[in-house]
Specification:
The protein is mainly α. Helix 1 crosses helix 3, helix 4 crosses helix 6 and helix 4 runs parallel beside helix 8. The chain is elongated, with a radius of gyration of 18 Å.
Length: 155
C-alpha cells in the first residue's frame, strides 16, 4: 500500500477531524463528475496521497460529504446576502425571501446533476435528523435576512 495514512501537523501528529476536513474540501472538486458519493471521497484521497483506507474516517459515508456541502453553501449564501444587505433592506419580505432562494439555487447549480442522489442519501433513516437540521438552518437564515429576528420556531 502506498500513500500516507493521514496528514501531519507541526508536531508530527494529525487529528482525524483535520483529515476529514481536508478530504471533504478536496472531494467537492470531484462531485461534478462523481456526485456526492464515496467515489468522490476516494478520488480526493488518491489526489491528496492518502491510503485508500482513509475514507473509513467517515462513519456515515457520503452523508458527511452532503453535510459539508450544506455547511459550505450556507456560509457562502450568508456571505453573499450580507454583501447585498443594503439592496435587500429596501425589498419587500417576499422579495427578500425570493432573493435568498435564488442565491441558494445559484450555489447549487454546479451540482444539479448530482443532487437527486444527495437527496436520496439524506432521506435515509440514519440521515434524516441531520437533513432536517440543515433545512432548519437554511430556512432560519432566509427568514433572518427577511427581517425576522424572533427566536421561536414559527416561520
Amino acid at each position: 500500500i502506498t500513500g500516507r495514512l493521514c496528514s501531519t501537523d507541526a508536531s508530527g501528529g494529525a487529528s482525524e477531524g483535520d483529515v476529514r476536513q481536508e478530504l471533504l474540501r478536496a472531494s467537492m472538486t470531484h462531485v461534478g463528475k462523481l456526485g456526492f458519493t464515496m467515489e468522490a471521497i476516494h478520488a480526493a484521497g488518491r489526489e491528496l496521497g492518502f491510503s485508500s483506507a482513509v475514507a473509513n474516517v467517515f462513519e456515515r459515508n457520503e452523508a458527511q460529504l452532503n453535510e459539508h456541502f450544506y455547511e459550505h453553501s450556507r456560509t457562502n449564501k450568508n456571505q453573499e446576502l450580507e454583501e447585498r444587505s443594503e439592496e435587500i433592506a429596501s425589498m419587500k419580505i417576499r422579495e427578500k425571501i425570493a432573493t435568498a432562494v435564488r442565491v441558494r439555487l445559484k450555489l447549487m447549480a454546479p451540482h444539479v446533476e448530482a443532487w437527486p442522489r444527495a437527496v436520496y442519501v439524506m432521506s435515509q433513516p440514519p440521515n434524516v435528523a441531520s437533513s432536517l437540521y440543515h433545512l432548519h438552518l437554511l430556512v432560519d437564515d432566509m427568514w433572518h435576512v427577511a427581517g425576522d429576528k424572533s427566536t421561536d420556531l414559527n416561520w
